[in-house]
Protein backbone atom coordinates (compact mmCIF):
# COMPACT_ATOMS: atom_id res chain seq x y z
CA UNK A 1 0.00 0.00 0.00
CA UNK A 2 2.80 2.38 0.94
CA UNK A 3 4.66 1.68 -2.30
CA UNK A 4 1.46 2.37 -4.28
CA UNK A 5 1.03 5.72 -2.56
CA UNK A 6 4.64 6.67 -3.21
CA UNK A 7 4.24 5.80 -6.88
CA UNK A 8 0.96 7.75 -7.08
CA UNK A 9 2.41 10.92 -5.60
CA UNK A 10 5.54 10.56 -7.68
CA UNK A 11 3.37 10.53 -10.81
CA UNK A 12 1.49 13.58 -9.53
CA UNK A 13 4.78 15.38 -8.90
CA UNK A 14 6.06 14.47 -12.36
CA UNK A 15 2.86 15.75 -14.00
CA UNK A 16 3.06 19.02 -12.08
CA UNK A 17 6.71 19.44 -13.01
CA UNK A 18 5.95 18.82 -16.67
CA UNK A 19 3.11 21.37 -16.55
CA UNK A 20 5.46 23.96 -15.07
CA UNK A 21 8.00 23.27 -17.79
CA UNK A 22 5.31 23.60 -20.48
CA UNK A 23 4.20 26.92 -19.01
CA UNK A 24 7.78 28.15 -19.00
CA UNK A 25 8.00 27.42 -22.71
CA UNK A 26 4.60 28.89 -23.53
CA UNK A 27 5.09 31.75 -25.98
CA UNK A 28 4.18 35.29 -25.05
CA UNK A 29 0.70 36.47 -26.10
CA UNK A 30 0.01 38.42 -29.26
CA UNK A 31 -1.52 41.89 -29.39
CA UNK A 32 -2.37 44.35 -32.13
CA UNK A 33 -1.35 47.99 -32.19
CA UNK A 34 -4.68 49.53 -33.17
CA UNK A 35 -2.97 52.29 -35.16
CA UNK A 36 -2.72 49.56 -37.79
CA UNK A 37 -6.49 49.73 -38.33
CA UNK A 38 -6.90 53.46 -37.77
CA UNK A 39 -8.90 54.06 -40.97
CA UNK A 40 -11.36 51.25 -40.31
CA UNK A 41 -11.57 52.23 -36.64
CA UNK A 42 -12.40 55.83 -37.52
CA UNK A 43 -15.38 54.57 -39.54
CA UNK A 44 -16.50 51.85 -37.09
CA UNK A 45 -14.43 51.54 -33.93
CA UNK A 46 -16.52 48.87 -32.24
CA UNK A 47 -16.87 46.71 -35.34
CA UNK A 48 -13.16 46.93 -36.05
CA UNK A 49 -12.13 45.94 -32.53
CA UNK A 50 -14.63 43.08 -32.54
CA UNK A 51 -12.96 41.70 -35.68
CA UNK A 52 -9.58 41.87 -33.91
CA UNK A 53 -11.00 39.84 -31.03
CA UNK A 54 -12.65 37.39 -33.43
CA UNK A 55 -9.33 36.78 -35.19
CA UNK A 56 -7.89 35.67 -31.87
CA UNK A 57 -5.65 38.47 -30.66
CA UNK A 58 -5.15 38.31 -26.90
CA UNK A 59 -4.61 42.03 -26.47
CA UNK A 60 -4.58 45.45 -28.04
CA UNK A 61 -2.37 48.51 -27.78
CA UNK A 62 -4.37 51.70 -28.30
CA UNK A 63 -2.97 54.80 -29.96
CA UNK A 64 -5.93 57.16 -29.81
CA UNK A 65 -9.65 56.45 -29.95
CA UNK A 66 -10.97 57.65 -33.33
CA UNK A 67 -14.72 58.00 -33.37
CA UNK A 68 -15.15 56.97 -29.74
CA UNK A 69 -14.00 57.79 -26.21
CA UNK A 70 -11.41 56.29 -23.89
CA UNK A 71 -14.14 55.08 -21.54
CA UNK A 72 -16.16 53.45 -24.32
CA UNK A 73 -13.02 51.89 -25.74
CA UNK A 74 -12.02 50.41 -22.41
CA UNK A 75 -15.50 48.99 -21.86
CA UNK A 76 -15.39 47.43 -25.32
CA UNK A 77 -12.01 45.82 -24.61
CA UNK A 78 -13.30 44.43 -21.33
CA UNK A 79 -16.51 43.12 -22.90
CA UNK A 80 -14.50 41.32 -25.57
CA UNK A 81 -11.92 39.95 -23.14
CA UNK A 82 -9.09 41.90 -24.77
CA UNK A 83 -6.18 42.83 -22.53
CA UNK A 84 -4.65 46.28 -22.94
CA UNK A 85 -0.95 45.45 -22.95
CA UNK A 86 0.27 49.06 -23.04
CA UNK A 87 -0.71 52.34 -24.66
CA UNK A 88 0.93 54.84 -26.99
CA UNK A 89 0.28 58.18 -25.35
CA UNK A 90 1.61 61.73 -25.55
CA UNK A 91 5.07 61.99 -24.01
CA UNK A 92 4.23 62.57 -20.33
CA UNK A 93 6.18 65.78 -19.75
CA UNK A 94 5.08 69.39 -19.34
CA UNK A 95 1.40 70.00 -19.96
CA UNK A 96 0.89 66.43 -21.26
CA UNK A 97 1.61 64.66 -17.96
CA UNK A 98 -1.95 64.72 -16.65
CA UNK A 99 -3.50 63.71 -20.00
CA UNK A 100 -1.18 60.75 -20.51
CA UNK A 101 -1.31 59.36 -16.99
CA UNK A 102 -5.05 59.81 -16.59
CA UNK A 103 -5.54 57.94 -19.86
CA UNK A 104 -3.20 55.17 -18.70
CA UNK A 105 -5.15 54.88 -15.45
CA UNK A 106 -8.47 54.77 -17.29
CA UNK A 107 -7.17 51.96 -19.50
CA UNK A 108 -5.72 50.03 -16.59
CA UNK A 109 -2.26 49.72 -18.16
CA UNK A 110 1.02 49.67 -16.28
CA UNK A 111 3.23 50.77 -19.20
CA UNK A 112 3.12 54.09 -21.01
CA UNK A 113 4.91 54.22 -24.38
CA UNK A 114 6.00 57.26 -26.38
CA UNK A 115 8.82 58.49 -28.58
CA UNK A 116 10.38 61.53 -30.17
CA UNK A 117 10.88 62.54 -33.79
CA UNK A 118 14.00 62.28 -35.96
CA UNK A 119 15.00 65.93 -35.47
CA UNK A 120 15.79 65.17 -31.81
CA UNK A 121 18.54 62.67 -32.68
CA UNK A 122 20.87 64.30 -35.21
CA UNK A 123 23.74 65.31 -32.90
CA UNK A 124 25.21 63.99 -29.65
CA UNK A 125 23.89 67.01 -27.76
CA UNK A 126 20.39 66.48 -29.14
CA UNK A 127 20.51 62.81 -28.21
CA UNK A 128 21.44 63.66 -24.63
CA UNK A 129 18.65 66.26 -24.47
CA UNK A 130 16.15 63.72 -25.82
CA UNK A 131 17.26 61.26 -23.14
CA UNK A 132 16.86 63.92 -20.45
CA UNK A 133 13.26 64.32 -21.62
CA UNK A 134 12.71 60.57 -21.57
CA UNK A 135 14.12 60.41 -18.04
CA UNK A 136 11.72 63.16 -16.98
CA UNK A 137 8.83 61.23 -18.55
CA UNK A 138 9.90 58.08 -16.74
CA UNK A 139 10.09 59.89 -13.40
CA UNK A 140 6.61 61.33 -13.92
CA UNK A 141 5.29 57.85 -14.69
CA UNK A 142 7.06 56.21 -11.77
CA UNK A 143 5.60 58.76 -9.36
CA UNK A 144 2.12 57.51 -10.33
CA UNK A 145 2.95 53.80 -10.43
CA UNK A 146 3.54 53.40 -14.18
CA UNK A 147 6.57 52.29 -16.16
CA UNK A 148 7.72 54.27 -19.19
CA UNK A 149 8.97 52.81 -22.46
CA UNK A 150 10.46 54.29 -25.63
CA UNK A 151 9.09 53.23 -29.00
CA UNK A 152 11.75 53.48 -31.69
CA UNK A 153 11.75 54.13 -35.40
CA UNK A 154 14.79 53.85 -37.68
CA UNK A 155 16.46 57.07 -36.55
CA UNK A 156 17.41 55.70 -33.12
CA UNK A 157 19.47 53.01 -34.87
CA UNK A 158 21.43 55.17 -37.29
CA UNK A 159 25.00 56.27 -36.67
CA UNK A 160 25.55 59.82 -35.43
CA UNK A 161 29.02 61.23 -34.89
CA UNK A 162 30.63 57.80 -35.06
CA UNK A 163 28.30 55.83 -32.80
CA UNK A 164 24.83 54.31 -33.10
CA UNK A 165 22.18 56.54 -31.55
CA UNK A 166 20.72 53.87 -29.27
CA UNK A 167 24.18 53.12 -27.87
CA UNK A 168 24.50 56.79 -26.94
CA UNK A 169 21.02 56.71 -25.45
CA UNK A 170 21.97 53.84 -23.17
CA UNK A 171 24.70 56.04 -21.69
CA UNK A 172 22.19 58.73 -20.67
CA UNK A 173 18.92 56.95 -19.89
CA UNK A 174 17.89 56.07 -16.35
CA UNK A 175 18.00 52.28 -15.88
CA UNK A 176 14.25 52.05 -15.29
CA UNK A 177 13.45 53.40 -18.77
CA UNK A 178 12.16 50.52 -20.91
CA UNK A 179 12.28 49.96 -24.65
CA UNK A 180 9.47 48.90 -26.93
CA UNK A 181 11.69 47.66 -29.72
CA UNK A 182 10.23 47.92 -33.19
CA UNK A 183 12.20 45.13 -34.83
CA UNK A 184 11.29 46.20 -38.37
CA UNK A 185 12.63 49.72 -37.98
CA UNK A 186 15.80 48.42 -36.35
CA UNK A 187 16.48 46.22 -39.37
CA UNK A 188 15.57 49.05 -41.73
CA UNK A 189 18.26 51.21 -40.11
CA UNK A 190 20.86 48.45 -40.41
CA UNK A 191 21.48 46.63 -37.11
CA UNK A 192 20.31 43.08 -36.41
CA UNK A 193 17.06 43.32 -34.42
CA UNK A 194 17.65 39.96 -32.72
CA UNK A 195 21.02 41.18 -31.44
CA UNK A 196 19.46 44.41 -30.15
CA UNK A 197 16.63 42.57 -28.38
CA UNK A 198 19.12 40.16 -26.83
CA UNK A 199 21.33 43.04 -25.70
CA UNK A 200 18.46 44.92 -24.04
CA UNK A 201 17.09 41.75 -22.42
CA UNK A 202 14.42 42.34 -19.78
CA UNK A 203 14.59 46.05 -20.51
CA UNK A 204 12.64 45.30 -23.71
CA UNK A 205 9.47 43.48 -22.60
CA UNK A 206 7.32 44.75 -25.49
CA UNK A 207 8.30 44.02 -29.09
CA UNK A 208 6.64 45.45 -32.18
CA UNK A 209 6.68 43.07 -35.13
CA UNK A 210 5.92 43.88 -38.74
CA UNK A 211 7.21 42.67 -42.09
CA UNK A 212 8.00 43.88 -45.57
CA UNK A 213 11.05 44.96 -47.57
CA UNK A 214 12.62 46.82 -44.61
CA UNK A 215 12.85 50.15 -46.38
CA UNK A 216 11.60 53.48 -45.12
CA UNK A 217 9.01 54.20 -47.79
CA UNK A 218 7.86 50.96 -49.41
CA UNK A 219 4.65 49.30 -48.28
CA UNK A 220 4.76 46.74 -45.49
CA UNK A 221 3.38 43.22 -45.75
CA UNK A 222 1.67 40.67 -43.54
CA UNK A 223 4.08 38.94 -41.20
CA UNK A 224 5.88 36.09 -42.93
CA UNK A 225 5.68 37.68 -46.38
CA UNK A 226 8.70 39.98 -46.18
CA UNK A 227 12.40 39.77 -45.37
CA UNK A 228 12.24 39.75 -41.54
CA UNK A 229 13.89 36.74 -39.88
CA UNK A 230 11.31 36.13 -37.18
CA UNK A 231 12.85 32.93 -35.86
CA UNK A 232 16.02 34.73 -34.81
CA UNK A 233 13.92 37.37 -33.04
CA UNK A 234 11.71 34.85 -31.27
CA UNK A 235 14.72 32.76 -30.24
CA UNK A 236 16.13 35.65 -28.16
CA UNK A 237 12.74 36.75 -26.80
CA UNK A 238 12.32 34.55 -23.73
CA UNK A 239 11.98 37.71 -21.63
CA UNK A 240 9.30 39.25 -23.89
CA UNK A 241 5.86 39.82 -22.34
CA UNK A 242 4.01 40.75 -25.54
CA UNK A 243 4.53 40.43 -29.29
CA UNK A 244 2.65 43.36 -30.80
CA UNK A 245 1.74 43.38 -34.49
CA UNK A 246 1.86 46.80 -36.14
CA UNK A 247 1.67 47.71 -39.81
CA UNK A 248 2.10 51.39 -40.59
CA UNK A 249 0.86 50.91 -44.14
CA UNK A 250 0.17 47.97 -46.43
CA UNK A 251 -0.49 47.49 -50.15
CA UNK A 252 -3.12 44.81 -49.45
CA UNK A 253 -6.31 44.96 -47.40
CA UNK A 254 -5.19 45.86 -43.89
CA UNK A 255 -7.62 43.61 -42.03
CA UNK A 256 -6.54 40.69 -44.21
CA UNK A 257 -2.89 41.46 -43.37
CA UNK A 258 -3.78 41.64 -39.66
CA UNK A 259 -5.39 38.20 -39.84
CA UNK A 260 -2.52 36.70 -41.84
CA UNK A 261 -0.03 38.11 -39.33
CA UNK A 262 -1.92 36.50 -36.46
CA UNK A 263 -2.02 33.17 -38.26
CA UNK A 264 1.70 33.32 -39.02
CA UNK A 265 2.74 34.10 -35.45
CA UNK A 266 0.45 31.56 -33.81
CA UNK A 267 0.79 28.66 -36.24
CA UNK A 268 4.57 28.95 -36.08
CA UNK A 269 4.33 28.83 -32.29
CA UNK A 270 5.96 32.25 -32.04
CA UNK A 271 3.09 33.82 -30.09
CA UNK A 272 0.05 32.69 -28.11
CA UNK A 273 -3.44 33.53 -29.30
CA UNK A 274 -6.75 33.25 -27.46
Question: Could you explain the architecture of this structure?
Answer:
46% of the residues lie in helices and 14% in strands. With 274 residues, the chain is α/β, with parallel strands linked by helices. The strands form 2 sheets. The chain has a 9-stranded parallel sheet. Helix 3 runs parallel beside helix 4 (70-80) and helix 6 (124-143) packs across helix 7.
Q: What is the CA–CA distance across the termini?
A: 44 Å
| H/E series | HEHHEHEEHEHEEEHEHHEHEH
The gross shape turns out to be: globular
Structural class: alpha/beta
Sheet with the most strands, sense and barrel status: 9 strands, parallel
Number of extended strands: 11
Mean pLDDT: 93
Helix content: 40-55%
Number of helices: 11
As residue ranges, the low-confidence spans are 4-8, 15-23
Q: Kindly estimate the percentage of residues that lie in beta strands according to DSSP.
A: 5-15%
Strand order of the largest sheet: 3-2-1-11-10-9-6-5-4
What integer value in Å does the Rg equal? 20 Å
Secondary structure topology:
Layout: H1 2-25, E1 30-33, H2 38-43, H3 45-55, E2 59-61, H4 70-80, E3 83-84, E4 87-88, H5 97-107, E5 111-114, H6 124-143, E6 147-151, E7 159-160, E8 163-164, H7 165-172, E9 178-182, H8 183-189, H9 193-200, E10 206-209, H10 230-235, E11 242-245, H11 254-267
Parallel strand pairs: 1-2, 1-11, 2-3, 4-5, 5-6, 6-9, 9-10, 10-11
Antiparallel strand pairs: 7-8
Comma- or semicolon-separated keywords:
274 residues; alpha/beta; 11 strands
Summary of the model, kept short:
This protein is α/β, with parallel strands linked by helices and 274 residues long.
